[in-house]
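RETRY 2/3 - previous attempt timed out on the joint model. Re-submitting the same 512-residue input unchanged.
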Amino acid sequence: MRCEEENWRPTASLASLRLRAELLKKLRAFFDIRGVMEVETPALSRAAVTDRHLASFRVDGSPGGALYLHTSPEFPMKRLLAAGSGDIYQVGKVFRAGEAGRLHNPEFTLVEWYRLGFDHHRLMREVAELVQSLVPGLRRSPEYLSYREAFRQHAGFDPLIADRQTCIVALRRHAKALPAEDALDYDGWLDLVAGEIVYPALGNGRLTFVLDYPASQAALARIHPGDPPVAERFEMFLHGVELANGFHELADAKEQRQRFERDLEFRKATGLPAMPMDEYFLAALTQGLPECAGVALGFDRLVMRAAGAHSIQEIIAFPFERA
Amino acid sequence: MASYSTNEFKSGLKIILDGDPYNIVENEFVKPGKGQAFNRVKVRNLKTGRVLDRNFKSGETVEAADVVEMDVQYLYSDGQFWHFMNPENYEQLAADATAMGDASHWLKGEEMCKVMLWDGRPLAVAAPVFAILKVTGTDPGVRGDTVTGGTKPAKLETGATVRVPLFINEGDLIKVDTRNATYVARAKE
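RETRY 2/3 succeeded.
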């Protein structure tokens, strides 16, 4: 088995690794010029994310009980913000169990930053500026689409008033594979349509921002009251690939706790492991999170784009299979 | 009952869907942003050969198909079943016409075949890649014509028909590629 013997080698070319190092340097300069401070927060924590669709790696063997590898540095970074840090960013490894494929490595590099006094609109402009400075050849003006418009344009229906049957019809029309009909709730069907039809069509030669997500998909974003209410959250796409996810940050500790509890109920009902809520984070919110917007940007996918790579394995020295 | 979680999916894995055994041909992990993750897979039905696409919610489990491959020797056909022997333990097994597919076109006796078993029953039989067979019926050969590239049908001793070059005669031995039923070359005794 010749290929097995060759598995000690990196899957990325040395040229890709040099580009990666170059981009990291430019990225740090971008924040340095803007007076955003680099910080480091723990990767290993007693608390973990309760998110319905994220799985944390659990680490046993510590005398105080189970620990979890973080899926993003969001909670401790918000503790820093509440403690008065001002604008901060972090570049670091995060870990998501079960996420492996052409665009996923279970261990990957995330760039996360928070800007005081920004709302998500202003932050989107800054994200575009950063990405355009790192990825050559993009048209200057990004496209901004509401979640609703993105679905109407590319899937041909209004996601805020449609139902499961509409999703199934759209998937059939686009000759997309279906799951078992009872496997998903409505948000799950929307996720399937998004992943199969809508998102692959976004970010053609320029950045596309999708914003105003359904309130049911708010995660840690504020909800803008209205009919229907929408989440002040955005995602950014380039060539059909999601590169970033940002929020106008929810600062209401009570509502945050309720969202955690709803997530935990969902996890219980669907047989997912319960996760210890981050009480430090909730205490920081109670103390008061300054008005801010924050975003997480997948650094590996950014490098992929800059290198013109087809898979994440081409720009990571040692992906999971060889780690 | 053994089962696989979607995060164990990879090409070559054998699973059961809607009661039929399938082979995973391709597996892609798809996760939109903060949403539900899916495994988009291409699977081949091991009974019919048909390929289809399916999406699985990541984390779902799917029943494993107990499918194994084995080398067996062809013994004879009784018209309804084709009988084989496992040379390691001399156990015999019988494959029906569905499992045989086109493999029966190329077997005379004693050939080593690959058989795929599902729960111990033959699911598919593959004949050796090349078969040397005698031509039992074809139009008379055109002497010396080895260059024009024309072909004609020829009936073989097993009953199969393949297209052969014009210079092939009745009684000649030919080598056939059984994967696509094509003539490869004239063969010697």
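The interface with chain B takes residues 51, 53-54, 98-104, 176-179, 183-184, 187-188, 190-192, 194-196, 199, 217, 219, 235, 242, 245 of chain A (CB under 8 Å). Closing ticket.
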